[in-house]
Amino acid sequence: MASLSGQDQAIVYAxxxxxxxxxxxxxxxxxGFVPYYLGDxxxxxxxxxAGSLFGATEDVGGIKALxxxx
Length: 70
What we know:
Layout: E1 10-14, H1 18-30, E2 34-39, H2 60-68
Parallel strand pairs: 1-2
């Protein structure tokens, strides 16, 4: 899948269970997206309603920019 910028669209994920994170990252890749690890669950504020990433459809560069500007 591509975003408007022509780069691969990323899906942000978070967690602390290493095996679970590996599985989630692989599923994201299997569906044609780029996994972007945000951190453990305490770092998920940007994914919550009114957060900078809530509903965002961006490539990795766009996600980094949204996080930087939040």
